[in-house]
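In this notation, each integer encodes one residue's backbone shape. One such record reads:

___
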Amino acid sequence: HTPETMRAIIQAARAIGNGLHTHLAQGARETETVTRLWGVSPVRWLDQLGAYDLPVFGAHMSGVDWAADGPRLAERGVVFSHCPS
């Protein structure tokens, strides 16, 4: 996604009173790509876009840097299921 498409998704979820389910940082390659394109990890990128103002369910998350981003996820109340396969 681009910042514009993610903002549109977040805005639509707000408009209908819904949360987000996303395959967040589902692998190292995604994390590397997001970091290269937007300068931050996928977890931080969604935070910058305001996604965590909504209920968020993250799936997979094999590419999360738990030391750096785990506390942020907990602080923002993100619910997740770590499914590495």
Q: What stands out?
A: The chain has a mean pLDDT of 93.
